[in-house]
Amino acid sequence: MSKNIQAIRGMNDCLPSQTPIWQKVESALRNVVNSYGYSEIRMPIVEATELFKRSIGEVTDIVEKEMYTFDDRNGDSLTLRPEGTASCVRAGNEHGLLYNQIQRLWYMGPMFRHERPQKGRYRQFHQFGVETFGMNGPDIDAELIVLTARMWKVLGIENQVRLEINSLGSNEERANYREALIEFLKQHETVLDDDCRRRMLTNPLRVLDTKNADVQLILKDAPRLNDYFGDESKQHFSNLCERLDAFGIQYQINERLVRGLDYYNYTVFEWITDSLGAQGTVCAGGRYDGLVAQLGGKATPAVGFAMGLERLVLMLETLSLTQDVRRTVDVYVVMLGEQAEIKAPALIEQLRDELPDVRIQVNCGGGNFKKQFKKADKSGAEIALVFAEDEIANQTVSVKHLRKQQEQTTVNLSDAAQTITAAL
Ligand code: ATP
Ligand code: MG
Question: Which residues does the UniProt record annotate as the domain Aminoacyl-transfer RNA synthetases class-II family profile (predicted)?
Answer without folding.
Answer: 1-330
